[in-house]
Amino acid sequence: MARGDKSTYTTAQKRKAEHIAESYEERGVSDKEAEARAWATVNKQSGGGEKSGSGKEKSATAKRADRKDSARRAASARKGHPANRGRASAGSHGGSTSLTALTKDELMKRAAAKNVRGRSRMRKAELIKALS
């Protein structure tokens, strides 16, 4: 697929991008910049077009939960609270913290402690799989 090709996006994603772009244009953003921002927003919200590979591993419900968790942490940070308030203490005590709730760095440390081979080249999903 050529860069910038939108053929793998659903009609709903295309409509959403168009609506977002129109909104930016109404606020005085150039057409080209508005379109770029709109597609970036669609990609961030839905993980891009319908493609095979790692983007399909997570269910829509799991993605929604992750976004909600991320928004909650961002709001907490804006209020002046540390970002990983609950996670750091649970991880350091060896509690039963879900691996998906950990950052890649935290997973990397656990993989190093367990001497997982090839960990430096692994993505977060691969680290989770190797540690479970």
UniProtKB/TrEMBL annotation:
Region (Disordered): 1-132
Sequence ranges of Basic residues compositional bias: 75-84
Compositional bias of kind Low complexity: 85-102
Compositionally skewed regions (Basic and acidic residues) per UniProt: 18-36, 53-72, 123-132
Protein name in UniProt: Termination factor Rho
Upper lineage: Bacteria, Pseudomonadati, Pseudomonadota, Gammaproteobacteria, Pseudomonadales
